[in-house]
């Protein structure tokens, strides 16, 4: 049965079998899957999740801030009390599953890291 990379990534499961956990910590990926033994040590999403999450959450935060400022005319202290924690929660909550999706897509498309040792001597 084929593994759906989006669902597997959102659930933070192994991109190979979707049974074992992907993360050993908040964002640290296991070296090997506990269920199938797949090598996860080379799985690296880089800065991709951070860039996308910051763009998405930034648009939500800025849009919401502009709406509440213009339509509701909240005082600045209330804007800060509402929007700063909300942006932090959205960012931290979305980062782990989005990293899981990018790693699962990497496995699904059989992508691998660029190897420096194949570069000709300059």
Question: What does it look like?
Answer:
The protein is mostly helical and 122 residues long. The chain has one domain (5-111). Helix content is 52%, strand content 0%. The chain contains 3 helices and no strands. It has helices spanning 5-10, 48-72, 76-108. The chain starts with a helix and ends in a 14-residue tail after the last helix. The model is unreliable at 114-119 (pLDDT under 50). The chain crosses the membrane at residues 50-70, 76-95. This is DUF983 domain-containing protein. Keywords: Membrane, Transmembrane, Transmembrane helix. InterPro entries: DUF983.
What does the secondary structure layout of this molecule look like, with pairings?
Blueprint: H1 5-10, H2 48-72, H3 76-108
User: Could you give the distance between the termini?
Assistant: 46 Å
Spatial shape: elongated
Radius of gyration: 19 Å
The residue ranges in which pLDDT falls below 50 over 5 or more consecutive positions are 114-119
- Count of DSSP helices? 3
Average pLDDT, all residues: 89
Helix amount: 40-55%
The number of E-state strands comes to: 0
Going by helix content, strand content and strand pairing, the class is mainly alpha
Taking the sheet with the most strands, its summary is: none
How many distinct folded domains? 1
Output the helix-strand order. HHH
């Amino acid at each position: 049965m084929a593994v759906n990379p989006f669902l597997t990534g959102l659930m933070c499961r192994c991109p190979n079998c979707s049974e074992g956990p992907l993360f050993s910590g908040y964002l640290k990926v296991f070296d090997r899957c506990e269920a199938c033994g797949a090598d996860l040590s080379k799985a690296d999403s880089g800065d991709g999740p951070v860039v996308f999450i910051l763009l998405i959450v930034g648009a939500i935060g800025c849009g919401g801030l502009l709406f509440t400022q213009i339509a509701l005319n909240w005082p600045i202290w209330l804007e800060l009390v509402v929007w700063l924690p909300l942006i932090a929660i959205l960012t931290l909550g979305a980062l782990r599953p989005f990293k899981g999706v990018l790693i699962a897509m990497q496995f699904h498309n059989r992508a691998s890291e660029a190897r420096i040792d194949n570069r000709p001597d300059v």
